[in-house]
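ok so for the tutorial part 2 we go from a plain amino acid sequence to predicted structure tokens. step 1 is just haveing the sequence, like this:
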Amino acid sequence: MSEKLFSALSIVELLEAQDGKLVGNVSCEAVGHLLAELNNHICKQVLGEAPGFAIYLGPDNERTNAIKDLYGPTLPINFVLSEMGEEMERAISLFRPDLVEDAGISSYKFAPVEGRTVGQRPTDDGHMLYVVEPASMAQDTADLYRRKRETRQLFSLARRFEMPPELENFIAAHGRKIALISHKTIGGKDFVGSGAAKSFDPRNYLPTLKHLKDEGFQLVHFGREPYPEIYRAFDVIDYANSPLASFRNDLILASHAGFGLFGSSGISWFAEWMDMPFVMVNMWTIDSPPFSDKAVYLPTLARDLTSGDLVNFEKQLWFRQEHGVFFPHSVYEATDCSAEDILTATRECLEMERVGNVALTENQRRYQETVSAHPTSKQALSRISAAFADKHADLMTIELASDDQDAVPMTRAAVSA
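step 2 — the prediction. this is what the tokens look like for a chain of 417 residues:
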């Protein structure tokens, strides 16, 4: 923006003058939340749920500047970036909540919301965050997914940004398709917020890396996790730990990628923005699968520590509301998918991209019926791996009605805007 906005008061005055709103509760610390929550607000604007004039008041950092610079005026949001951005947003949220349009889908807000926040916790810098009631948090994501359904034919965040010469030379794709490879390592504070229940064994990727290389992909280690030395056998480029790794280059690289293989984390939102086909592995949060109709996912299963039995999907669907935002290790053992599971899911995802419309199998439909009891997973267009659904059909408690056995299942083309 051309205006010099140095205080919360000047932001308030501009919002009042323009009959606008502040984009509220966007978490910049987590890549997935930043991308998802900005996406959420834009969907609101497209649908008329939020006014056309909006200010995103965020920190002046690498991530926010990258989005501002790369997308520029193509986004219907005015970026005002400042070292005091979050301080000013907190003040406006507390004292002028009428000027804030909530875009958040996380477990906290900057200000209390009647009927939705149930407590508070201090931050490291002495402020307060207000904890969102679990059902309200689930509804926030469900509303985001609903908005994405309703706007998917109206606008797209997918771009193909020009790749800087130094990045192009480093990736060295030379016309080959790019596959982004990322796994999740759990440790420290990441343990609580991650959709992964435990660290991933990168050996489980090896058959899939071979398949992708045979399919002509240039393999790129994406994210910021340490590089597994066993990847060198497949010439995986270690972008993640290179001097070129930055949020800006993440966006640029994602805009050129033809496939993603991701552990359960917010990094998949790069694929959501760029309309990239991807496989997500080892996500225990089956209530909140990826949104994209180009995504295939593999859940982490939960084994009861007392009985030794795997928990059925109907029960696992409500884990977060029952146990909170991290996997309940005191009660269950996390059982991740196998190397063969990942390979078959990848083949399915690539086939979907080639063919376009691939009908859901009977067990995929049974699984969808099961998870549709949750407001978020009901809105998602992604699918569980067909082979995984067949392998664990005994964990589904729903049988399709006889009238549905010959029904035409939902395909990508059948989903309307």
